[in-house]
Amino acid sequence: MCTAWLAGCSKKVADPVTRSSFLLNTFVTVTLYDSEDQTILDGCMTLCSDYEKLLSKTLEGSEIYKLNHRRPGERTITVSEKTAQVLSEGLEYCRMSRGAFDITIEPLSSLWDFTGKTPHVPPEEEIEADLKKVGYENVLLDGRRVTFLNDETTIDLGAIAKGFIADQMKAYLEENGVKSAVINLGGNVLCV
Question: CA–CA distance from 126 to each of 115, 123, 130 (Å)?
């Protein structure tokens, strides 16, 4: 009798719905536990893809790719509001950590070729040579205008972008009434 009463009082919870896509050089998965609305999942993946098109250092045409492949002597470039926001946060963490975290690590991270067919530990002399190119102090941000103090400074937002994007995806889900979800960006997991 008690079991029937409890079953009668329970409210059906939506079956979880999941969407996965290969974005940001990893598998991105979003699971909703309190909604079966596929359009919310579509919007989440679109948001992630849109940020990838801005922040990827390897995706030709992204704003970070364009910053890193600027012509010699081209020192000031205007970026989108979204890219400027991530750069601003990245530079703030650089300052707070006094360079222990540095978004200009790209010359060194590229030496290892982590996503290539032959990742390897580069020779010490190459590391020493490219270490001189690293220094967040060489990047100035004024609103949406990014100014490089030298031609060799390049940017890698890999250490901050996924977390930032996950936060944006969470905000999007909450704006759409989702109260229970898991966002997984290649092991960077955020729960709603």
Answer: 19, 5, 6
CB-count burial class (<10 Å; 0-12, 13-18, 19+) for 185? buried
Two tokens at 65?
Answer: 């790719």
Phi, psi of 183, rounded to the nearest 5 degrees: -110, 125
Displacement of CA 180 from its chain's centroid (Å) = 22
Phi, psi at 163, each rounded to 5°: -65, -40
Asked if 137 and 31 count as a contact pair (C-beta separation under 8 A), the reply is: no
pLDDT tens for the chain, residues 1 to 192: 444 444 445 455 568 999 999 999 899 999 999 999 999 999 999 999 999 999 999 999 999 999 999 999 999 999 999 999 999 999 999 999 999 999 999 999 888 877 778 778 899 999 999 999 999 999 999 999 999 999 999 999 999 999 999 999 999 999 999 999 999 999 899 999
For the chain, the maximum distance between any two Cα atoms, rounded to a whole number of angstroms, is 81
SS3 content of the chain, % helix, strand, coil (to 5): 40, 20, 40
- Residue 27 contacts residue 21 (beta carbons within 8 Å): yes
CA 139 → CA 24, 59, 110, 172, distances in Å? 24, 21, 19, 30
Per the CB < 8 A criterion, the answer to whether 139 and 155 are in contact is yes
